[in-house]
Amino acid sequence: MKNFTWKCPCCDKQHTSLPLDWSMMAPQDFLEVPPDQRFFRTKIDQNFCGVDDKFFVRGLVELPVKEINDNLRLGAWVQVPIKQGERILKAENGPNSSRHGPFKGTLRSRLNLYPDTLNLKAVLHLRDDSVPLIKIEPCEHQLHVEQRDGISVDRVIEFATALMPKH
Predict the structure, then answer these.
(1) Do residues 77 and 56 make contact, with C-beta atoms less than 8 angstroms apart?
(2) pLDDT at 142
(3) How far apart are CA 57 and CA 163, in angstroms?
(4) Concatenated DSSP letters for 4-55?
(5) Single pTM value for the model
(6) Percent of the chain with pLDDT over 90
(7) CA 144 to CA 151: how far, in whole Å?
(8) Are 146 and 165 in contact (CB under 8 A)?
């Protein structure tokens, strides 16, 4: 959270910090598996997920926030081919992980403040001592445009209003 005073349009309350980190619990493919089948068909931890024969990596889509010199960080999931997933697993736990990749994949998270984000082409960049960066490949989609051009604090407040628990 970044120190920044703003007024919540939902409750009219003044907040003194701007929430800049949001994350999706799992890739859409995991969420579509019936709960009684997840034990047999899935494996998930904080940064990796397998569903049947598919491999997913959690990373961050970072949107520059112009007025505060920081980023809104959206934790999302990218599907990569199994062979690339194996390379990512080996590199992620080793030194200099940023030297590996980049890895092309497909966004498999629905980010609800955007038109459908499933299947957007993405590139996963491993980073040393940090969650991988997800770059949306150039296209006309609003998510790519905001990642490229940045967003306003008002847009961050729009995210907070939509995603914070109702109070």
Answers:
(1) yes
(2) 97
(3) 22
(4) EEEE-TTT--EEEEE--EEE-SS-HHHHTS-GGGHHHHEEE-SSEEEETTEE
(5) 0.90
(6) 69
(7) 11
(8) no
